[in-house]
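dude i think i finally got it to work??
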Amino acid sequence: MSVFSTDSTGKIREKKKRFLDREQRIIDKALELLLRDGVDRVTVAAIAEAADIGKGTVYKHFQSKSEILIRIILDYQSQIAANLQKGIEATEEGDPGATVKAYFNSRLSNPALDRLASQLELRLDDDANLVDQMQQLREVRRAATENLNQMVAKLIERGVLEDVPPHYHYLACWALSQGAVDLCFDKGFREQFGDMDELLKFIINIGATMGNKGQLRDL
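look at this
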């Protein structure tokens, strides 16, 4: 290979890296603004200013504000899926509570981000321009759920968890996490009980043993 070809390849890689770094900066700054100001107050112009780039440059990466929003949801859901996979691997290695801990920690480590992702998904679900991205989101979630259900089924077989349909365990975790996130933004509860950090730790600990064999009782 000639020196010219080597230099050309290196320049292409560097250009691609700059492009991807700039794209990530757009996402990061958009997320900061969304968490601070709310969805309706954040514009592409505001994102561009926060990222210290021109508005036109943002459109080189994303065709619309909605595309930025769906990317934030996808990144968040992909991170949850990755954390769950690590938890599943730890469970396979002998820690039966690792999977559910990974789920709770993923959602409750940043309740504001979790709530934002849920709000954005509801907002974008019927957007005709985001059909492919929404399908991708559902595929990420479906794959993570299938892996989770397989792990739960194994724990049921081993006598660790109650013998109920595997999705009962998953949905119970979802319900507890959802309630915990909602609590964090309930002004009445915050005024009455103050900081929620210790409560969230307690909820995670409770969630880690929820559904263990021997807990189910006939009502």
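The chain has two domains: 1-62, 63-219.
im so relieved honestly
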